[in-house]
Inverse folding.
């Protein structure tokens, strides 16, 4: 098992250091600042995450989101922090086979669960089909939303295959198919401020082996 | 986010006991709404009780011919269940009209019922809000209130309930099942589950402290044409301006419930007698007693037109 305790200088360490400098600089503030630091340390908990086939045990502040655990503890910075409120989809990862917003879930809620990030889908030498299709169709400009778009796109095709309906599915009881309308609706939780949507849809159609229908 | 302690509950009753026993405790399931509010320090629980391990994630038939939906069934799974798609299409439609694929994969049945309003002043901690801070006032009444409530409002609050799922459950006459720390269970009709704001908009449901939702039951299927029509500012991933959940029987009778109008899913059973008389008569009965602002008065004609569209769709 891989042990990882995060950055050598923790965020808490930096804050504590900042408080110490403040007490030197501003004497009247000493009392309040000292009381602040005298409080009990925030609760931490161990959690074992299985990310991209690798099991890692980390100890985290209970407040740590899955997104922050991936980026700051496991150094998997492919997953991006956009809005941090579940609105933009940049943090999308696949947990137990399902795409979720990693910013809106706590790391401690994923004990032992299988997590796939963009780093686990493919490598620069051996791209996942969806990664290759995004390159081929120029499905990005700045690239910041791309890891979330790709994780979401891979899961979207899985959801259609599994028969999960969407808002634009004509007959809610029927098996949905890979149409452009379906892809647009299902990918609406991933925002691209560069506006590469048309090429993203082309990339997903390419992987699905389907044609643009609108 | 404020610091909190965390535990994983192993039984529903134990979770309810822990909630009573621990000051400032809250249940967490999907977490998609609660964690958002915790980041903004609108919610500041000192202790989280993770209920995800309680096994309440099954959809099973009831002896009455309906379905019992476990509290932890994810919105995606409820929408995709073949029995729901076949017999309770309005519920499936409502679910897939809400949020995004990622959120629906995490959000639970019980959590969806308990989600908080998206009133912008509830979210803005620099502004008064009787729901967030009882007695502080309501910044929405004189503020930006285009998307806020027109029915059942009070001088204290004009917030709306944001759920689509709950509107469909209201039209289906669902029942919310709960358990408390003493192990006592309760079945609450969905009509009585959410409250109007009155003088205490901070109290949103009829749940007692520590009471945990275990399931939502759907009565025997009632047939008819199932429609969920949601009107919003963009075509996907937006809350409703108004929404209509409809089950329409041959001959034009049926049931209607509305989202985006009130502090709870809005249904006026008496108004349903007007359905064969058309959209205008129906809307006028549904909207009796409406109180609008200059910004949200558009919702009244929008309700009439959307009912009209639903009636047309049912005939088609």
């Amino acid at each position: 098992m891989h042990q990882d305790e995060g950055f050598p200088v923790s965020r808490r360490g930096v804050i504590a250091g900042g408080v110490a400098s403040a007490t030197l600089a501003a004497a009247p503030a000493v009392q309040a600042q000292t009381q602040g630091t005298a409080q009990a340390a925030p609760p931490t908990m161990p959690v074992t995450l299985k990310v991209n086939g690798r099991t890692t045990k980390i100890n985290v502040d209970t407040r740590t989101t899955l997104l922050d655990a991936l980026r700051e503890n496991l150094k998997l910075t492919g997953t991006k922090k956009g809005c941090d409120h579940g609105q933009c989809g940049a943090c999308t990862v696949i947990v137990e086979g399902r795409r979720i917003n990693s910013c809106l879930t706590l790391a401690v809620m994923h004990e032992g669960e299988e997590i796939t990030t963009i780093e686990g889908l493919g490598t620069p030498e051996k791209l996942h089909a969806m990664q290759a299709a995004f390159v081929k169709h120029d499905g990005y400009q700045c690239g910041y939303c791309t890891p979330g778009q790709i994780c979401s796109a891979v899961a979207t095709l899985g959801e259609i295959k599994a028969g999960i309906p969407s808002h634009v599915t004509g007959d809610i009881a029927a098996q949905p198919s890979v149409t452009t309308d379906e892809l647009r609706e299902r990918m609406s939780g991933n925002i691209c401020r560069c506006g590469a949507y048309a090429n993203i849809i082309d990339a997903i159609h390419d992987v699905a082996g389907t044609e643009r229908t609108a | 986010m404020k610091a909190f302690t965390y535990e994983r509950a192993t039984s529903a009753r134990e979770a309810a006991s822990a909630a009573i026993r621990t000051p400032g405790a809250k249940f967490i399931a999907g977490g998609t709404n609660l964690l958002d509010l915790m980041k903004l320090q609108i919610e500041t629980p000192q202790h989280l009780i993770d209920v995800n391990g309680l096994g309440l994630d099954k959809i099973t038939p009831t002896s009455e011919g309906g379905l019992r939906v476990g509290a932890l069934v994810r919105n995606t799974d409820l929408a995709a269940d073949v029995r729901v798609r076949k017999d309770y299409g309005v519920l499936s439609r409502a679910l897939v009209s809400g949020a995004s694929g990622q959120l629906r994969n995490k959000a639970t049945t019980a959590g969806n019922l308990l989600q908080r309003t998206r009133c912008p002043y509830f979210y803005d901690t620099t502004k008064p809000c009787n729901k967030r801070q009882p007695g502080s006032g309501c910044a929405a009444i004189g503020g930006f209130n285009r998307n806020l409530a027109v029915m059942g409002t009070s001088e204290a609050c004009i917030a709306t309930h944001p759920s689509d799922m709950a509107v469909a459950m209201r039209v289906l006459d669902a029942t919310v099942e709960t358990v408390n720390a003493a192990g006592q269970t309760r079945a609450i009709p969905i009509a009585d589950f959410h409250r109007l704001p009155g003088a205490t908009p901070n109290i949103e449901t009829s749940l007692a402290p520590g009471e945990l939702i275990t399931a939502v039951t759907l009565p025997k299927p009632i047939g008819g044409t199932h429609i969920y029509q949601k009107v919003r500012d963009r075509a996907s991933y937006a809350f409703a301006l108004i929404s209509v959940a409809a089950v329409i029987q041959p001959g034009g009778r049926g049931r209607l419930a509305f989202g985006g109008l009130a502090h709870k899913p809005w249904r006026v059973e008496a108004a349903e007698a007007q359905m064969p008389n058309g959209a205008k008569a129906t809307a006028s009965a549904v909207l009796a007693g409406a109180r609008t602002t200059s910004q949200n008065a558009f919702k009244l004609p929008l309700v009439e037109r959307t009912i009209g569209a639903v009636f047309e769709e049912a005939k088609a």
Notes: The radius of gyration of chain A is 21 Å.
